[in-house]
Amino acid sequence: MTVTRPLPNYLIQRYHGWRATSFEENQTWYRRLADDGQRPRAMVISCCDSRVHVTSIFGADSGEFFIHRNIANLVPPYAPDGEQHGTSAAVEYAVRSLRVAHLIVMGHSRCGGVAGCHAMCSGQAPELEDATSFVGRWMDILRPGYERVTGLPADEQVHALEKMAVRVSLDNLMTFPFVASAVEAGELSLHGLWHDIRDGELMMLAEDDRFVPL
Amino acid sequence: MTVTRPLPNYLIQRYHGWRATSFEENQTWYRRLADDGQRPRAMVISCCDSRVHVTSIFGADSGEFFIHRNIANLVPPYAPDGEQHGTSAAVEYAVRSLRVAHLIVMGHSRCGGVAGCHAMCSGQAPELEDATSFVGRWMDILRPGYERVTGLPADEQVHALEKMAVRVSLDNLMTFPFVASAVEAGELSLHGLWHDIRDGELMMLAEDDRFVPL
Amino acid sequence: MTVTRPLPNYLIQRYHGWRATSFEENQTWYRRLADDGQRPRAMVISCCDSRVHVTSIFGADSGEFFIHRNIANLVPPYAPDGEQHGTSAAVEYAVRSLRVAHLIVMGHSRCGGVAGCHAMCSGQAPELEDATSFVGRWMDILRPGYERVTGLPADEQVHALEKMAVRVSLDNLMTFPFVASAVEAGELSLHGLWHDIRDGELMMLAEDDRFVPL
Amino acid sequence: MTVTRPLPNYLIQRYHGWRATSFEENQTWYRRLADDGQRPRAMVISCCDSRVHVTSIFGADSGEFFIHRNIANLVPPYAPDGEQHGTSAAVEYAVRSLRVAHLIVMGHSRCGGVAGCHAMCSGQAPELEDATSFVGRWMDILRPGYERVTGLPADEQVHALEKMAVRVSLDNLMTFPFVASAVEAGELSLHGLWHDIRDGELMMLAEDDRFVPL
């Protein structure tokens, strides 16, 4: 006996529609991917947010992107302490087993996680400081980013922190020895993106550490 | 200065194409979602695998699904120990802040993470036992599932373990007090799915704890 | 000593620009593709015409499409006679060695080869009938298509013949045993497209044998 | 009724994106090209390989290159025997009808066709010797090239044969009377290139019959 419930009917209907159309159109390729294994060219780390689907933005086919999604697209620093690190496991699998060529971190505007982090760090959300707050502890990863935006006017800080989340994740990625060595060997490229969900704009982290429109 | 590199041009072109078409056609809805905030009806926990995109299968519109993707669609047991738990943070945010009505865990066939877990538990992948293996430690979550498939013929175990990953995650979800109370209050439904990536079939975990075709 | 000449300087300059930008951005992926081999999902058969580049239309990345281009995107019937059949060799390699999932034949408007075929078949281009005319003999492949458009008003025949070239090629593809068996086994999908180079429209051959706008 | 299938949706989406951006931006030029006909300055003969797109390397605009792609970028010797010669037809059309100024043959590294030819000629691929092997019979064109590399150390032969494929094709091109006369009249230049797909290098066949970096 389980606690699960039947899937809502509208989802079942959509699934049947998908299988009769999109799956049908692609079935030879799906079969090939199933038999021979995936070989994605890129890993994408983006937010769980329901308004940001990277497969749409890049017209990605099945098999192209290995996608990890968590709150605020964060990567923690390298910590081989024997504990469970889901994000680090995803990065390890993508870089070492799948040997992806690109690793893209994509942040976005109006991110609830980033807003929560800013509220927490600026003393406006004490409940997030609690040891039992999973969101709070997860957003601790972004605390170093908060330090780097405190000099800005108050009304610009949250926005800046969204972009800082991308930089912090990229910095943390480079603390993983297998990421750093793959980057140095020219086998892996890192990319930082930030997406404005309201006007659709996509910005790229450039070599001078600024985000520029694509 | 950063280590990031420019985005490959074909992705930039596809983005511009997306913005001129899909985004343009939906911009009033995107704007509304940006201004009013997301209000997804469901959270989906699925695998990072590049062959499994739940947005396609369910024809999900922007704003519908809050999606967490990790290796092998696992949820660890409730552990409010002050450490960083990315998956638990995503669940907490979805259930407590967004108050989603559905929480769907979706497994799939030919999952590299599950295969690795089976190899590790059956003594064929000692490197995954190492404390520094992020994938190995992450797959520890599924060890209780392995115990439940050892009675099966050897060639059925991996396949059974893929489905067990869904059951283990659902069981673990119920150890989160806020999940259990929302389920009991009738405010949250849990759902278990398993997807065959080769033939496109979707199976649902039924009340008798078996997976049945939709 | 050879008869070759140095490459024009503007092409050398463009190559250097490409290598410093596009190649540089994609080099990790190019390296991976070089080391592990190509695994294209589709073969495309299109015309040599300088106005039809399928990689642009589909924003194709390196490694996605295996492309054969010949005059008028024609495929001859299966003829295992020990002679040199370049198109048949390309199809054989794509289907049997690379095991592509999709085989796309794309025709286009204002095709010089098709116009020549129409002129030849309607008696207006006797020089193409000559045994030494490579273009004429190549366009013989499309003669069965000409028979199927002669009932149309004169000013619609060339246009109809462009689309017939796609149908004839698809019919001929099915005479290759390894194509037919892969299609029947669900391992290969055939697709017919026709592109209007003037207004950019792309049409698809539908199940009722008519071309419909995408 | 046809055997064709609907085009996968991600390709349809990308096409719509292309039409709304690249096509839209260039439509006056596309219209001009459609109305006045193509007038490419060069014909390029390159391989079907999905990793070699000459339009990218040379940033080619629509209308610039008339492109023939076959297995291993081969040109057979002149043989006006009334049979179907697709490559010869493409050359004839480019030189006699379009009167291109340049004819470029571009080989590349890790060519599957060349590797197959080497295996066949060295007795390691008897299946390619079969009269019904289209790839084998097509690669017969390169047999004279194999004879010229047998004196090299075994591990250098395949690589040398890739470059020999360019030389053989250029030699064969000069057996076409209309090519030879256009070259002699100064109306057509032949060029030989070889591209390393792993490191992006492009080499040019120089007057002393050696390939030199550009």
From TrEMBL, chains A, B, C, D:
<dbReference type="InterPro" id="IPR045066">
    <property type="entry name" value="Beta_CA_cladeB"/>
</dbReference>
<dbReference type="InterPro" id="IPR001765">
    <property type="entry name" value="Carbonic_anhydrase"/>
</dbReference>
<keyword id="KW-0479">Metal-binding</keyword>
<feature type="binding site">
    <location>
        <position position="49"/>
    </location>
    <ligand>
        <name>Zn(2+)</name>
    </ligand>
</feature>
<feature type="binding site">
    <location>
        <position position="111"/>
    </location>
    <ligand>
        <name>Zn(2+)</name>
    </ligand>
</feature>
<feature type="binding site">
    <location>
        <position position="108"/>
    </location>
    <ligand>
        <name>Zn(2+)</name>
    </ligand>
</feature>
<keyword id="KW-0862">Zinc</keyword>
<feature type="binding site">
    <location>
        <position position="47"/>
    </location>
    <ligand>
        <name>Zn(2+)</name>
    </ligand>
</feature>
<dbReference type="GO" id="GO:0015976">
    <property type="term" value="P:carbon utilization"/>
</dbReference>
<dbReference type="Pfam" id="PF00484">
    <property type="entry name" value="Pro_CA"/>
</dbReference>
<dbReference type="InterPro" id="IPR036874">
    <property type="entry name" value="Carbonic_anhydrase_sf"/>
</dbReference>
<dbReference type="GO" id="GO:0004089">
    <property type="term" value="F:carbonate dehydratase activity"/>
</dbReference>
<dbReference type="InterPro" id="IPR015892">
    <property type="entry name" value="Carbonic_anhydrase_CS"/>
</dbReference>
<dbReference type="GO" id="GO:0008270">
    <property type="term" value="F:zinc ion binding"/>
</dbReference>
<keyword id="KW-0456">Lyase</keyword>
<protein>
    <recommendedName>
        <fullName>Carbonic anhydrase</fullName>
        <ecNumber>4.2.1.1</ecNumber>
    </recommendedName>
</protein>
<comment type="similarity">
    <text>Belongs to the beta-class carbonic anhydrase family.</text>
</comment>
<comment type="function">
    <text>Reversible hydration of carbon dioxide.</text>
</comment>
